[in-house]
Amino acid sequence: MDRTTSPFGLIALLLLAGMTAAGQFAKISVIFPELALTYPEAGASLGFLVSIISLTGVLTGLVAGMMVARIGLRRVVVGGLLLGAALSAVQALMPPLPVMLMTRALEGLSHIALVVAIPTLIAQLSADRHRPYTMTLWGSYFGVTFALVAWAGAPLARSHGPGILFLIHAGVMVVLAGVLALALPRGVVARRQDPLPGVRQILANHPRIYASPRIAAPALGWLFYTLTFVALLTVLPPYLPDATRATLSFWMPIAGIIVSLTLGAQLLRRMPAVTIVLIGLAAAAVSVVLMWLMPGAFLPPVLLFGSLGLVQGASFTAIPQLNPDPADQALANGALAQMGNLGNLLGTPVLLAMVTPMGFDGAILFALIAYAGCAAVHLHAAARRARG
Known about the structure:
The chain is mainly alpha-helical. The protein folds into two domains: 1-196, MFS general substrate transporter like domains (Growth Hormone, Chain: A, Up-down Bundle), CATH 1.20.1250.20; 202-388, Growth Hormone, Chain: A (Up-down Bundle), CATH 1.20.1250.20. The chain has helices spanning 8-29, 32-38, 48-71, 73-91, 97-125, 131-139, 141-160, 163-183, 199-210, 217-235, 245-268, 273-293, 299-322, 326-358, 360-387. The chain is globular and about 55 Å long. The model is unreliable at 1-5 (pLDDT under 50).
């Protein structure tokens, strides 16, 4: 393949497919109040509609990374889109809660297939000089999708019922599956010809992969990032001033996207991705300390999430930088998806457990410990890589 040019149209389609994967979370989270009215008997168990996808990702993330190189990235993307579309269409019928939960668990398979295969394809399709931008765009897909669904999808669900959002999601996934089946060239990444690993081999491969300072480093750092991102967005608002709470709730995630696509992309052209992750962590820690010193101030929370935008884009870019082999990239993306789902699963409960006895100080301590842990993981892995 010609590495001097990037097929931007194809990469744009893959980014849209990634947004439908993020939509598998957003379509539930954004209309959660409407779903609570649809399933009034569910009570607290309704939260599993969101978290069960994360649980599936924790259990299958690295398995997907091992398998996509053997099945073929093109097949995995198209198959993941079709499976997701079918399940979204069933969900549009608003079936009984046990059936809805079963479709969400299966949807986790579609989600993990997409978030492992798509960034691996984007990295391979991107010319070297464009990769910092394309991987940064990929890193912003989650925040952009949530903002879009909140802006356009939530009003639709309120006026026409939740089912309309699931139907639109299914339709977009079907269209993208058809277009990508035709547009994706075969053999972008050569399929591995060795047989699919058995259960015993899969279990044995987990320690080997997580012991690798190249394959595992982005994922282990991502665990600490995801522990805080959704958790802080969920738990911080009650501690923000009433006058600026709504404005801050909008600008905090938007700041991360803006910084990732501007400053982050420029820095990635000049520095290694891991260095930028460490810069972002240091800036995030300073922002957290400023939040503690100046409670209620507008700027520190925005600076915090802007700093996390550097961590976000650089973490995805670190995967192809540290792992030139596409098979290793797939494993690294699988590990990152697994750790990201684990972080999303644990972050909010852990933060709430710290905030309940300690209040706002608990949130500050939680964030500082997480960012120190992320930095320690990357510094330790970098030292190991330097030793060879």
